[in-house]
Amino acid sequence: MKLDVLLVPVDFSDVTQSVYEAAADLAGRLGSKVVLLKVTEPEIDYVGMAPPQAMMSADETMTKAAESALTAGAEYFVKRSLQVETLHLVGPVLTTILDETNRSGAGMIVLGSHGHGAIYSLLVGSIAEGVIRHSSVPVLVVPVLRAPQKTAP
Fold first, then answer.
1. Higher pLDDT, 16 or 149
2. Helix, strand, coil percentages in the chain from 3-state DSSP, rounded to 5
3. CA triplet 141, 146, 152: central angle to 5 degrees?
4. Whole-model pTM?
């Protein structure tokens, strides 16, 4: 199987390291380039609530933090001699991931799931679930690893 590009959307949560590991393993086995993607939801503008300089400062801080985290993530793949590209895009998370899949020519998406449970997914939804439902390419969902809970004797 030959996949030239793996799209790896990340949110820098607890599952991100496991996503990196899965993506690196696949990319190494398949000879794929990794595209690390961070999508930031656009902030709602409250006209007149904050001076424009404050809004720009918050946006710049968020962008710098995302780009710094992406650079650190890219180093993980570079240390494994894998080709990696980083992208930080602003937009609706689900549609931006799907659009970037098509734009980059990705043959697979590797992303994490937070495992909030059925009620949360029903009320709030899940990016992973949306990607699975609407993706035109295979999707590997990496679950968050939780320590086993101890049971009472």
1. 16
2. 45, 20, 35
3. 140
4. 0.81
